[in-house]
Design a protein that fits this description.
The structure is a homodimer of 429-residue chains. Chain A is α/β, with parallel strands linked by helices and 429 residues long. Chain A folds into three domains: 148 residues, NAD(P)-binding Rossmann-like Domain (Rossmann fold), CATH 3.40.50; 162 residues, Dihydrodipicolinate Reductase, domain 2 (2-Layer Sandwich), CATH 3.30.360; 82 residues, Alpha-Beta Plaits (2-Layer Sandwich), CATH 3.30.70. The first copy, chain A, has 15 helices and 16 strands. In chain A, the strands form two sheets. In chain A, strands 6, 7, 8, 9, 10, 11, 12, 13, 14, 15 and 16 form an eleven-stranded mixed sheet that branches. A five-stranded parallel sheet of chain A has the order 2-1-3-4-5, sandwiched between helices. In chain A, helix 5 runs parallel beside helix 6 and helix 8 packs across helix 9.
C-alpha cells in the first residue's frame, strides 16, 4: 500500500537544493522501492533566483513559514537553513503544529535538541537529524538501531572535511598551513572566515551529538576540550610520519571507569590505523563497543548530494514508520547528574623541543619529564643546530600520562633556561 | 514505559552462546538505555554440557521446539543453529505461531527468504537477519534505513573472514596457500573442510542477500559467478603489488544499464583503495549510491560477540518497533521478470603467461590479445627463464574488456604453441 507524503523544504542552499533535486529525480524510484509517494509541496527561501535555478514551480513557493505550516498537505518539514536563528524558530513552530521535522543542522541539534525533542514528544511527531553529522554516512541510524546492543566505550571521528582536506595536503604535499588554507578557500572547501572549521567548533558540535547518543547522556559541547589545526606545523607532521604516525583532527569520546572524556584536537594515530587512510574531504567514525569490538563507517561528510542522501533517507524513514523512537538525550541541556567528566585525561604525547646543543641537556630534559610523571618511549635529536640560536630540535614520544602532568613538565622545561617546547601533539592508538 | 520481552535461543554454538551472554550481561543496560526488559525464557540445544557451561538455569532448558513455541512468554525466537535443515523447520514453525524471528543464518536467508517472509507477513511478525551478513557491521540496517534514498549502483565486499585472513598472510608474509590454510585450520579460523569459505560459497550467500536488498530484486545465489582462492599463487600477489594492486576475495555487485552483474572472485584492487587495507579477519562493504557517492562499513565479520551484537541489536529493534518493514525480496525465489543478468561482464585483467624466450613472442602475444579485443595497458617480462622449459614469465595488465574476450584470447594463446596462460586475476578500480 502506497503512502502519500508531502514535504516542505526550508532553505534552498547547497543541502536544501540537493534535497529538492534528489526528491524530484527519485520520485518514481521511491514509489517503486519504498511504496512512498513523496511530493515537494512547498519551499521557502528568500533567494528567488535560486528557486528559479532549481526549476521549482511557482505554486510551490511559499512566502512565509505560516503559509508552509498552514498547508494541510505538508506532513514533513525539512530544515536546511542552518544556524540557530530563524532555523530554530521555524523548527519549533513546525513541531508545535505537529509536523515531523528532518534537519541537517548540527548546531541546532547540538545546542537545542532538548527543547526540540520535548516539543516533538509533546506533539507526537518525529525529529530526525542523520544529516547533521558526517553527511551521507548513516552514523546516527547505526547508533540508534545498529549497535545499540553495545556499551560504546570509545569513538574517534574525522568529522570535518575542510580540516581533513587541509591536513591531507600538508601531509602528502608538504605544504604549509596558511598556503593550503588559502587554496582551500579558493576552491570553496573552506569559508572566507574559516574559524568554525579550523578551530574545531564544527567538530565539537558533531561530537556533542554523537557522544550524547553513544553514551546515553547529554554531552554539552561546552564540556568538550577543543584545539584547532591553525597552529599545526608541517614539519611536525613529517617528523610524526618518521615515527609511524599520521596527523588527523580527531573528535574523541571515551566512556571510561573514571568518567566521560570528550575532546577535539590534532592527533597522531598509527599510520596503519584505518582512520589514517581517510583522506581529503572524506570523513569516518571509528566506534568500539563491548560486543561488536571495532566498527568504522566511512564516506563523504559533506556536499549537496551526499548530505541530501541522509536528509531523504530520514524522510523515507519518517514516512514509513509511524512509531517514533526518540534519542536518549532525555530532554536535558545538561548531562545526567551522575555523569562525571574527565578533563585531566590520559594520553600519550609527541613533543618537539628546541634545546641548547650542550652536554647534559638530554639528561636534564629527561629528568624534568620524569619528575613530572612523564615517562619517555623515545627521545631523538632531529636535524642540525639552528643558526641563529644554536639550539637543536628534540623529539620526545611519551608513554601514556595525564594532560596536567605534561603541561606541568612543559612549564618546567620552558622555565629551566635549557630550551623550550615548540609543539605538543596528543597520540592515540 | 518499559516493554517486557521474552526470547528463546535455538542453538547455543559460538553465536548462540555469545548471544545468551550478551543478553544476560546487558539486561540492566538495555532496561536503562532502551526501556526494554529482555529475558531469556528458553534455550534449545542437544548439547547439555554446553548449557551447563553457559550457566543456564534448568527451568529455561526446553526439550523440544514445541515446548519453546508453547511458552506464552516467548515473543522472539533467535535462531543460531545454522544450515537449512532443522533451522528452516524451526523458523517456519515459529513464524507460523506468530513469533518474531531473529536469525544469523546466511544460508537460510539466502535460499529461503521468500518462503520465510511470506510466512512472517501472513502472521504479522518480524523477520530480522542483520547477523547473517558481515557479523557486527550494521550493513542490513544501513541498506534498509540508512542509504535507501539511493540507487545503489555498485557494492564491493570483503565478506568472509577466513579467506581474508589467508590472503593477508599470503600478501604480507609471502607464505603459500596450502601452508596458511593449514595454520588457519590449526587456529580454528578455517574448518577442517574449508570449501564453504575458500571456494567462495559463503561469500555468494552473503552477496545474494546484500545485492537483493541493494538492487530491489531477488538475486538467487545460483546467478552469482563464483571462483575461490585455492588456486591463488603467492607470486601473483607479489607481482600485483609491484603494479600497485592488492589481492582480495571480493563479492561484487553492479547494477548497470545492461543489467545486474554479481560475482565472487579473487580481485586486484588499487593498494590505495580503502578495501585494500581491510586485513586479517576484518570485513568491509564498500557501497556506491547515486546521491551518497561512496560509503564503507568496516568491522569484525564473525566471532561470538561481534555477531551477538547484530543479533541482539535486531532483538532490541524488534522489541521497540511494533511496525515491521520487510525487505524488498518480494516473496520470490527468482528475480523480477524484467531483471537482466550480465554474465559476459566487463573487467580489467591481470594475466601471467609462460612464453618461449624468443624474438617475436611478445608481438605474437600482443597480436592474439588485440585480435580478441583485449587491449593492453602494460606487458612486462618478470624474472629469468625457467631452467626446465626455458620459458619466461610475462605479466599482462589489460584495459577493461569483456570476460568472454579474455577467455577466447587465452584459449588462442594456449593453442598457439608459443606459451600458456598460468594465471588470470580480475582487476577492479
Amino acid at each position: 500500500m502506497v503512502k502519500k507524503v508531502g514535504v516542505a523544504i526550508l532553505g534552498l542552499g547547497v543541502v536544501g537544493g540537493g534535497t529538492y533535486q534528489t526528491l524530484v529525480d527519485h520520485h518514481d524510484f521511491y514509489l517503486k522501492t519504498q511504496q512512498v509517494d513523496i511530493t515537494v509541496e512547498m519551499v521557502l527561501d528568500l533567494n528567488l533566483e535560486r528557486i528559479r535555478q532549481l526549476g521549482i514551480p511557482e505554486e510551490c513557493v511559499a512566502k512565509s513559514i505560516e503559509e508552509v505550516l498552514a498547508n494541510p498537505n505538508v506532513d514533513i518539514v525539512i530544515e536546511t537553513i542552518g544556524g540557530i536563528g530563524v532555523a530554530k524558530n521555524f523548527v519549533l513552530a513546525a513541531l508545535r503544529d505537529g509536523k515531523t521535522v528532518v534537519t541537517s543542522n548540527k548546531e541546532l541539534i547540538c545546542k537545542f535538541s532538548h527543547e526540540l525533542e520535548k516539543e516533538a514528544k509533546r506533539n507526537r511527531c518525529g525529529l530526525y537529524y542523520e544529516a547533521s553529522c558526517v553527511g551521507g554516512v548513516p552514523i546516527i541510524r547505526t547508533l540508534l538501531d545498529g549497535v545499540q546492543a553495545n556499551h560504546i566505550t570509545k569513538m574517534m571521528g574525522i568529522v570535518n572535511g575542510t580540516t581533513n582536506y587541509i591536513l591531507t595536503k600538508m601531509t602528502y604535499e608538504g605544504a604549509d598551513y596558511a598556503e593550503v588554507l588559502k587554496e582551500a578557500q579558493k576552491l570553496g572547501y573552506a569559508e572566507a572566515n574559516p574559524s568554525a572549521d579550523v578551530d574545531g567548533f564544527d567538530s565539537t558540535y558533531k561530537l556533542s551529538i554523537l557522544s550524547s547518543m553513544a553514551f546515553h547522556t547529554k554531552i554539552p559541547f561546552t564540556k568538550i576540550f577543543r584545539e584547532g589545526i591553525s597552529a599545526v606545523e608541517t614539519k611536525d607532521i613529517a617528523y610524526g610520519q618518521e615515527f609511524g604516525y599520521t596527523l588527523k583532527l580527531l573528535a574523541i569520546g571515551k566512556n571510561t571507569e573514571n568518567g566521560i572524556e570528550v575532546r577535539v584536537h590534532p592527533t597522531f594515530i598509527p599510520s596503519s590505523h584505518p582512520l589514517a587512510s581517510v583522506n581529503d574531504s572524506f570523513n569516518a567514525v571509528y566506534l568500539t563497543g563491548d560486543a561488536v569490538d571495532d566498527v568504522m563507517l566511512y564516506g563523504r561528510g559533506a556536499g549537496a548530494l551526499p548530505t541530501a542522501s541522509a536528509v531523504v533517507s530520514d524522510v523515507i524513514y519518517a514516512a514509513t514508520h509511524t512509531e517514533i523512537k526518540y534519542s536518549t538525550f532525555k530532554n536535558s541541556a545538561q548531562a545526567d547528574s551522575n555523569t562525571k567528566f574527565v578533563s585531566n585525561f590520559e594520553s600519550a604525547y609527541y613533543l618537539r623541543l628546541l634545546v641548547d646543543d650542550k652536554a647534559g641537556v638530554l639528561a636534564k630534559v629527561s629528568g624534568i619529564l620524569g619528575k613530572n610523571n612523564v615517562s619517555i618511549v623515545e627521545i631523538t635529536q632531529k636535524g642540525s643546530p639552528d643558526e641563529a640560536t644554536g639550539r637543536v630540535p628534540l623529539i620526545v614520544i611519551t608513554h601514556k600520562t595525564r594532560e596536567n602532568a605534561v603541561k606541568n613538565a612543559i612549564a618546567k622545561i620552558n622555565a629551566s633556561g635549557i630550551g623550550s617546547v615548540e609543539a605538543l601533539i596528543r597520540v592515540e592508538q
